[in-house]
């Protein structure tokens, strides 16, 4: 049985100091727990180097500002702290989780004076999906919940509260035998998966939803750049669910998912092909620390 996360024997960086994970505690009355005043990032280290680490830190800081608080550490300080935790935990290929939240000085909707905390945890992280299945393509369910209207929620922040419907949707998908679920936006258009962006291929061109009610992922941007390097056109547009039969391939992207092929969405079949496979290969090469890939 796997060791529970709160009982691991490694270290967490907590408000500027390293603390044994098992001793890293916060109050039950923390505002972030009760009112979701909490933002985080999901990052990945390859060979000891965090891929797009600064971009993730900048997004973390921006997410906090969207939720109306400032993280009391600079981008450079957070980047250094992430590297320190990886080094002290002796982890080369790992997941990196910075998280910031309002503390427990006051508990109520208003908590403007509460202290802002920042913690950084890391852990060894295998492939999010089975490596063989990533090549064959995973199966996606259709989620019942939709991504919210940007006028009703801080959709462009990587905020903890926005993931409630993602957890529900992924659990339901797994209970039905799927790996994940595709979510629509509040107007019924294709949006994303529960923790990954989605792409479709038609006539040699890549199509992906406009990211205005969900995160335009850092891995999403990398995949789009890799496609353009191959002179593959990438089109960001509104995509309706009834268009799915028009596409030949589908794949998803995310820090955890990396680039993963999709073989089915709610009964609609796709065949992972040349473009998806090329981007999977290109992404694997892209994330390798510069100078280490050739030596491997």
Low-pLDDT runs of 5+ residues are: none
Give the mean pLDDT.
94
| Shape estimate | globular
Helical content (DSSP H or I, runs of 4+): 25-40%
Termini gap: 33 Å
Query: Helix/strand-derived class?
Result: alpha+beta
Number of helices: 7
Layout of helices and strands, plus pairs?
Blueprint: E1 11-14, E2 17-20, H1 31-35, E3 38-40, E4 43-46, E5 49-50, H2 53-66, H3 75-88, E6 94-102, E7 116-124, H4 131-136, E8 138-147, H5 164-175, E9 180-185, E10 190-193, E11 197-202, E12 205-209, H6 218-229, E13 234-237, E14 249-254, E15 258-265, E16 268-269, H7 274-286
Parallel strand pairs: 8-9, 8-15, 12-13
Antiparallel strand pairs: 1-2, 1-7, 3-6, 4-5, 4-6, 6-7, 9-10, 11-12, 11-14, 14-15, 15-16
Record keyword descriptors for this entry.
D-amino Acid Aminotransferase, Chain A, domain 1; D-amino Acid Aminotransferase, Chain A, domain 2; 7-stranded antiparallel sheet; 7 helices; 296 residues; alpha+beta; 9-stranded mixed sheet
Describe the 3D structure.
With 296 residues, the protein is an alpha+beta fold. The chain has 2 domains: 8-124, Aminotransferase class 4, branched-chain amino acid transferase, N-terminal domain (D-amino Acid Aminotransferase, Chain A, domain 1); 131-286, D-amino Acid Aminotransferase, subunit A, domain 2 (D-amino Acid Aminotransferase, Chain A, domain 2, Alpha-Beta Barrel). It has 7 helices and 16 strands. The strands form 2 sheets. Strands 8, 9, 10, 11, 12, 13, 14, 15 and 16 form a 9-stranded mixed sheet that branches. Strands 1, 2, 3, 4, 5, 6 and 7 form a 7-stranded antiparallel sheet that branches. Strand 14 and strand 15 form a beta hairpin. Helix 2 (53-66) packs across helix 3 and helix 6 (218-229) packs across helix 7. The relative contact order is 0.13.
